[in-house]
Amino acid sequence: MSDQNPPWEGGCRCGQVRLKITAKPLLTMACHCTGCQKMSSSAYSLSAAIPAEGFEVTYGEPAIGGLHGASRHYFCSHCMTWMFTRPEGMDWFVNLRPTMLDDPRWFAPFIETWTREKLAFAETGAVHSYEALPEMDAYEGLVKEYMACS
Q1: What are phi and psi of 144, to 5 degrees?
Q2: Distance separating alpha carbons of residues 85 and 83, to the nearest angstrom
Q3: Mean pLDDT on 19-47
Q4: Under DSSP, is residue 96 helix (H, G, I), strand (E, B) or coil?
Q5: Which residues contact 56 (CB under 8 A, 6 or more apart)?
Q6: pLDDT tens figures, 110-136
Q7: Residue 40 pLDDT > 80, yes or no?
Q8: Which of 18, 39, 55, 98 is deepest in the core (most CB within 10 A)?
Q9: What is the DSSP string of 35-64?
Q10: Which residue range is the domain that position 66 belongs to?
Q11: Dihedral of CA 58/59/65/69: which sign?
């Protein structure tokens, strides 16, 4: 991550939903799972885990999309841009799609997950790779390592 610091603003492609980020990410990621491939129409999805208190929808009303399951995926109801996810049982952070930011050039994934499902050509440059998800007890160390280098 560069030395650019929040606040950051961003929004969906059409501008009908706008966001403000006032806290640095806890961790940045790329996910290669087939679900993310389908939802992003790409080889993987990108996300930045933003502390919930540092995330705000400032304009518009995002709609729940995706599988409509316990993890809530939020989209712009007009342009259908996948903007962020609120993972089930983890209300203390929001997984922001960093390309929603007006200037996402600072972003780089620190970890990549679900590499056993990745497309053969897909490379992210992430520091750590996992065939599925890291064990829950690994996240504390990953966050500390990420924060130390950001």
Answers
A1: -60, -45
A2: 7
A3: 96
A4: strand
A5: 19, 20, 21, 22
A6: 999 999 999 999 999 999 999 999 999
A7: yes
A8: 98
A9: HHHHHHTSS-EEEEEEEGGGEEEEES--EE
A10: 19-149
A11: positive
- Range 37-55 average pLDDT: 96
Q: β-strands 63-65, 55-59: how paired?
A: unpaired
CATH of the domain at 56: 3.90.1590.10
Q: How many domains does the chain have?
A: 1
pLDDT at 2 over 80: no
Radius of gyration of the chain measured on its C-alpha atoms: 15
Q: Residue 45 falls within a domain, yes or no?
A: yes
Tokens of 71: 């993890």
Percent of the chain with pLDDT over 70: 98
Q: How confident is the prediction for the chain on average, in pLDDT?
A: 94
Residue 50 domain flag: yes
Residue 4 lies in a domain: no
Q: Are residues 48 and 25 in contact, defined by beta-carbon separation less than 8 angstroms?
A: yes
User: Is 12 domain-assigned?
Assistant: no
